[in-house]
Specification:
By secondary structure, the chain is mainly α. The chain has one domain. About 75% of the residues lie in helices and about 0% in strands. Helix 3 runs antiparallel to helix 5 and helix 3 crosses helix 9. The longest helix has 30 residues. It is elongated, with a radius of gyration of 19 Å. The model has no long low-confidence stretch (mean pLDDT about 80). InterPro entries: ABC2_TM, ABC2_TM_bact-type, ABC_2_transport, Nod_factor_ABC_transporter. Its main location: membrane. Keywords: Antibiotic resistance, Cell membrane, Membrane, Transmembrane, Transmembrane helix, Transport. This is Transport permease protein. Pfam families: ABC2_membrane.
Length: about 260
Amino acid sequence: MSSIRWAVADGWTMTRRDLAHWVRQPAPVVVSLLFPILLVLMFGYLLGGAIAVPGGGDYREFLLPGMFVMTMGFGVESTLLAVTTDASRGVTDRFRSIPMAPSAVVVGRCGADMLNSALVLVVMAACGLAVGWRPHGGPGATLAAFGLLLLLRFAFLWVGIYLGLVIANPSAVTLVQVVVWPVSFLSNIFVAPDTMPGWLGAIATWNPLSATAAATRDLFGNPGLAGGWVGVAVAWPLLLVAVFFPLSVRTFRRLSR
């Protein structure tokens, strides 16, 4: 129990350190808030009229749950950049020389990014309400949908932390961006997979982003694919966390060897 309290206290200290950086340098946070809004306006108003919704309905109500999911997926880049920046500046080496819990640095990074993600979701939801999106599933289902979104973000955080520790080079963010964009579009975020060629649609259907998008549309009561995706939307993030959380902690420990 003493070790657990030590790890929690050190993790919270590192979280406060990252939050202090955002207060002093708010530009990256502001960009992370404004960029998804720009995408909503572009796809909702410029392209939405040309896209059919599965089963009919308003395209913006179909789009917004997908945009929530896409925003959670894009968090991989910001997490990776923060981790690699600390590594390139020697900050990570200094942390390793301090008597702290081995998990504190990665847990602190995760805690700060989760708070930022919750703020992004609030801003995105407000933007969605402004452009005509409405949740129709009731308070409990709406909270469950946002819980699934944060669970997905939590999973991708550990992917970003692990990649940042392994690569340790800020320029590698460009490579991750090259991967993140096709993965995001190869899903049901913007269009239904049945509009794609058969083999491509099958890949898009089982994309972790697609599972969460389909589940949240169902919980929000928005138009989209048939229900039954909530279990898959929970299983995918738990699998990613089970793989990348221990890898992240183990990699951080091995950096000093």
